[in-house]
Amino acid sequence: MNPRYLTSIAELDNLVGLAPKERETMESVTDKFPFRSNDYYLSLIDWKDRHDPIRKIVIPDERELNGGGCADPSKEKDYTKLPGLQHKYDQTGLLLVTDVCAGICRFCFRKRLFMSCEREAIKDVSANIEYIREHKEITNVLMTGGDSLMLDTKRIESILKELREIPHVNIIRMGSKMLAYNPYRILADPELVTVLSRYSTPEKRIYLMAHFNHPRELTDVSIKAAEALNNAGVIVVNQTPILNGVNSDADTLTSLFRQVSFAGISPYYVFQCRPATGNLLFQVPVEQSYEVIQKSWQACSGLAKRARFVMSHATGKIEMVGKTAGHVFMRYHQAADPANIGKFMVFKSNPVARWFDDYHHAVTDLQPKKMMWLF
Q1: CA–CA distance from 86 to each of 90, 96, 194 (Å)?
Q2: For residue 27, which of 41, 7, 47, 56 has the smallest C-alpha distance?
Q3: pLDDT (tens digit, 9 = 90+) per residue, 291-309?
Q4: What does pTM read for this prediction?
Q5: Using CA atoms in the order 321, 349, 352, 356, what is the torsion angle rounded to 10 degrees?
Q6: Hey, how many other C-beta atoms are within 10 angstroms of the C-beta on 23?
Q7: 171-175 vs 327-335, strand pairing mode
Q8: Under DSSP, is residue 75 helix (H, G, I), strand (E, B) or coil?
Q9: If you compute the radius of gyration of the chain from its CA atoms, what whole number of angstroms results?
C-alpha cells in the first residue's frame, strides 16, 4: 500500500466529507499554516468525535490563529553554522536534509519551514559534511528536517555513506514520524531497510528518533515497520511533546509509554511543547506536564519510564527533575555552553508557566534569595 498524500482542504473534503462552515474555517487556517497528511493516517481518526486526539495532531484548528509564540522558539538560527547545518552541542551536528514531512503536525516547532520562502534545508550537503569532518568533537549526527525518511532511498544512502566515512561520527540519528504517519514507507521499500542495515553496524548504530504522540498511532502496521527496522540493526526510540487534548492526561500517557516499550521502542524524551507560532492551544503548564508524567509512571515498568522531561530551550535541554508545593527543581541535561551542563536550579513555583522563560521573567526583579542556583 502506498498512501495517497493530501495537501489541501478540498482534497480532505473529498475524502471524508466536511461541513461547509468546517471547510471554510480550515481553509482560513491553511492560508497561514499549511496542511499535509495521507489517507492512511486520516483513517485513524474517528470523524464523529470533534475531540479525537489523532484529529488534533494533523487537522487545522482555528485556534492556531490566536497569536502568541514565535517562529524560532529555540533560537536555532543562533546555532546555524552553514545553511542546513546546526551545531549547538559539542558532540552533535544537526543536518536539515529536507523541508518536507509525511504530515504536518499542527504543533510543529519548525513550522516556519513550511511557511517561509527562506530555505533552511538544502539538497547539497557536501559543505556540511566537510564541516562535520573538520570538527572531531562531533560524535553523532542527526538527520532531520522535515522528515529524513521523506528523502528517496538513494539520497539517504548517499548521505549515510559520506557520514560513515568520517571516523569520529559514531552515531547517526534520523528524525522521523514516518512510523506513525506512513509505516508503508519502510514496509514497501526493502531497499531502504537494506541500506539502513548496511550502515547500522554493531560498533556504530543508526538510531531512528520516532514520534508517537498517542497510543492509537501504534497500529499493527507501524509495529511491523518498527520490527523491520529493529531487524536491520536500527535502534528505535520515541519522543513526544506533552500536547493538550492529545496526551495530556495520565491514562493516555501511561498507555503510550507502555505500548512503545512493549514494542521494543525505548521512551527517550518527553518535551514541553515549544512556544512556536500557533502552538498555544497545545501547551500545558510546565508543572502540570510534570505531574501528569509522574502520575503516568505509576503504572509503568522501569523500561517504560526511561524518558526525560525536558524543555528544548535556546540555551540547552532543561530537565525538570522535581517539585514541592512552593518550588520547582531543574537542571541542564544538555547545554550550548558546556559549563552549564548539570547545573541545578531552584525556582519559586509558577503554576501558569508554560516555558522556562516564564520562570526567568518571574524572578528577575526579585531578591537573589528568591531564586537559588546550586552548582
Answers
A1: 11, 8, 29
A2: 7
A3: 999 999 999 999 999 999 9
A4: 0.94
A5: -50
A6: 15
A7: unpaired
A8: coil
A9: 20
Name the one residue in this structure whose C-alpha cell is 537542571. 331
CA 87/CA 2 separation, integer angstroms: 36
Tally of helices (H runs) and strands (E runs) in the chain: 14, 15
C-alpha distances in Å from residue 127, one per residue of 84, 123, 130, 226: 10, 11, 5, 32
pLDDT tens-place string over residues 90-125: 999 999 999 999 999 999 999 998 886 566 777 899
Q: For the residues 349-356, what does the mean pLDDT come to?
A: 97
Q: What is the pLDDT of residues 261-286, one digit of tens each?
A: 999 999 999 999 999 999 999 999 99
Within 10 A of 155 (CB to CB), how many other CB atoms are there? 15
pLDDT at 363 over 70: no
**CA gap 278, 297 in Å, rounded:** 30
Which residues are registered as beta bridge partners of 86? 80, 94
Residue matched to cell numbers 495520565: 250
The fraction of the chain above a pLDDT of 70, given in percent, is 95
C-alpha cell at 146: 522535515
Q: How far is CA 23 from CA 7, 18, 59, 180, in A?
A: 14, 6, 11, 25
Q: Are 56 and 104 in contact (CB under 8 A)?
A: no
Say which amino acid occupies 284. V
Apex CA 126: angle with CA 124 and CA 130, to 5°? 155
Strand runs labelled E in 20-175: 37-38, 80-82, 85-86, 92-96, 140-144, 171-175
How would DSSP label each residue in 331-358?
EEEEESSGGGTT-EEEEE--TT--SHHH
Query: 371 pairs with which residues across the strands?
Result: none
Torsion angle, CA of 191/197/101/139, rounded to 10 degrees? -150
C-alpha cell at position 260: 512503545
Grid cell of 19 as nine digits: 461541513
Asked whether the predicted pLDDT for residue 313 surpasses 50, the reply is: yes
Q: What distance, in Å, lies between the first and last C-alpha atoms of the chain?
A: 55
Amino acid at 312: S
User: How many angstroms separate the most distant Cα atoms in the chain?
Assistant: 62
The single-letter DSSP state of residue 38 is: E
Cis peptide before 278 (omega within 30 of 0): no
Of the ranges 28-32, 114-118, 187-191, which one carries the lowest mean pLDDT score?
Answer: 114-118
